[in-house]
Amino acid sequence: MGLTHPLAEHAAAAIQSDALVLARRRLRRGTARATTSRFRDQVWSLTPAVHQRQTTAHTLDFRALPEPYVSAVKELMFTLLAGKPMPGEKTASVITIHGYFSALRGFFSWLDQRGTPSLGEITSGDLIDYQTHLLATQPQQARRQTLRRAVSLLWTYRHAMPAGHLAFDPTRLDEWCQDKEGQRRGENKNARIPEQVMAPLLVWTLRFLDDFADDILNALREWARLRDAPALSRDQAQGTLLVRLAPVLDRYRAVARPLPGHELGDGTSVNIPHLSREVGCHRSSLYSEQAMAAINRAKDELGVAQSAWLWTEIRGQLDGRPWRAGISYQELPELVRLLQTAAYITTSYLSGMRDSEVKHIRRRCLRIETDSSGRVCRRKITSLAFKGEGKPTGTRATWVVGEPVVRAIQVLEQIHLRDQNWLFALPPCSKEYAKNRSNQTRGLNQTNKDLNSFRDWINTYCQEHGRKDAIPLVRSRAWRLHTGQFRRTLAWFIARRPGGSIAGAIAYRHLSVQMFEGYAGTSKSGFRAEADQESAIARGEQLHAMVEGHEHEQLHGPSAGEAQARLEKFGTRTRFLGRTPDADQMQKIMKRSDPKIYPGKFVTCSDNPDRRMCERPGTKAMEPNLGGCKPLECRNVALTADNIRSWEEQLASIDHQLALGDRLAPLVLARLMQRRDEIAGLLHRAARPPRPAVTG
């Protein structure tokens, strides 16, 4: 009996022209499979198989490819979408396949300029030249890898491409697999937002939610009433027009307010469309002789404003003064968009959610749990998690969040209409919504534009009002915000916990406990791993500094010798680079050669699981429980000079209390004396005998 070749089932077979390209893909609810794209079409719509609401329309337009390569790319795309993956390959998502198509379109455009007529005639020199082209034009290493990966598929799926394929495996070319050493990632590729940018950005974000939101929401309600007010036609308003117009004009007279004008007008022309909204009639009605006479009399008396101001009173304060004079009808949509962006930043940054997870937050997603006394103990929101879940439709997940995120959700629920379930859908006052009343969620590119528009609004506002809390430049350029940066930045802040807190009292340690309890426990792609990764990098940098400063040679305490040996070995790894490791290099070093040394304020833990006293019996965690450390008893303790100084400060504090001994209860006095003896014993064993205790 002959052996079957492992690629036999993937051998090329004629693809029927009417074959459905999404035949094996799960479709959106309500989509008839028979209406989806077929192999013969020149444009394939993949949108019916895309389940994330924030994604825009996805199509494969084969007309954009040079003609010699269309058939081969069609066969490849059909196999990826509707066929079985090759051995060792995973089924790619629709969005990933769309990315491969875009990458191949760029590759074949570049190739077409070189005059290469067919796939089979591509040489290793062509691919090496393409690699050189990528190194020169693509600054992001991850992007270059994606582009090369797409080209490699032309060999991997060769058995399913009778119209043409690569004649050799690109991955066997050394030059194809090499990349620039030390290549810096692009600024917007999940870069951490610098502290000097994140601090004022979050301050302004919370100002929008806490101080400005009520004004914007009240103005939105007034805006909606004006927009939706029934507009009587000229015939319908005949006989009652002046009766309806008079109280509107009297309202302006009562407060000596100029009549509404045009945003870019000269200050002399009345905004008739806006006035007609207030009257509740069609604009043509106000051009009648009697109506215009009444309007002109009011105009001569009051003048004309530079815009059509809403009547909403501004109550939000900034430094004890109203944050703006008023809100105009024309600018209200922009302010609502800024408010929605502020809610996005708050939710994304203070929850650790990805963009796709934030965009799937729905109305009534919030649940607040209280204890028996009515005190809030948990604030939870639910959404869908996609990454790592193995389901294109996502998996329901729960995030435990803080009060600012709750406020953001509550604001979003007031922005949208009752029938708009998705809280990051287009606001009802936006032009896009007005066109077709779409409930479409804002896409990734649009959200990135909104983030940077929010930054620009802050800086313009600060410039106009002489404020000094604008978003500063970074390396003489405005920092480009991207949705993927917030998660990375939060992980950094939790890991580093810099001195002080931004935007008031945001406690990152408490925030991390909340998020780890919620999100990390319900989603495979939780936030804990990223925060742990940042913590490991921070710890590695701290240990590297200890070794470079020879602090590891001056350790004391029961585990000093073991800690010194581990750190010396760790130092050998870092010195091998010949320079200070960057974050990526430190991550690799810690993954391969973590010395399991954990610096702290009072002790430097040289962790040995068999000697731990910080974990419950019967458990065996990957790392020590530093929050449950018992430094006066544990044999894993090593002491640096800073640790010893911290203990000496503790002794000084206890001595100060003992000096008031006659005012202390006997039990308290006894416990303080016991605590002092234990600390003194630790320092004595560390060869640093303390001064005698002083009692009152």
What can you tell me about this protein's structure?
The chain has 696 residues and is mostly helical. Among the domains are: 8-177, no CATH class; 215-313, no CATH class; 528-615 and 627-639, no CATH class; 646-685. 46% of the residues lie in helices and 6% in strands. It has helices at 70-82, 94-113, 124-137, 141-156, 174-177, 195-228, 234-237, 241-254, 272-279, 289-302, 332-351, 355-358, 403-415, 431-436, 444-465, 485-496, 508-517, 519-522, 528-548, 560-575, 583-593, 641-658, 666-685, and strands spanning 43-45, 59-61, 317-318, 321-322, 366-370, 376-385, 395-400, 597-599, 604-606, 637-638. The protein has a 3-stranded antiparallel beta sheet with strand order 5-6-7. A hairpin with a 4-residue loop joins strand 8 (597-599) and strand 9. It is flat and about 100 Å long. The N and C termini lie far apart (98 Å). The model is unreliable at 1-11, 181-189, 499-507 and 517-522 (pLDDT under 50).
Notable traits:
mainly alpha, 3-stranded antiparallel beta sheet, single chain, disordered N terminus, 696 residues
As residue ranges, the low-confidence spans are 1-11, 181-189, 499-507, 517-522
Global structural class: mainly alpha
Largest sheet: 3 strands, antiparallel
Tally the beta strands: 10
Termini, distance in Å?
A: 98 Å
Give the proportion of residues in helices: 40-55%
Count helical runs: 23
Broad shape: flat
Could you tell me the radius of gyration in angstroms?
Answer: 33 Å
**Overall pLDDT score:** 84
Tell me what portion of residues adopts beta-strand conformation: 5-15%
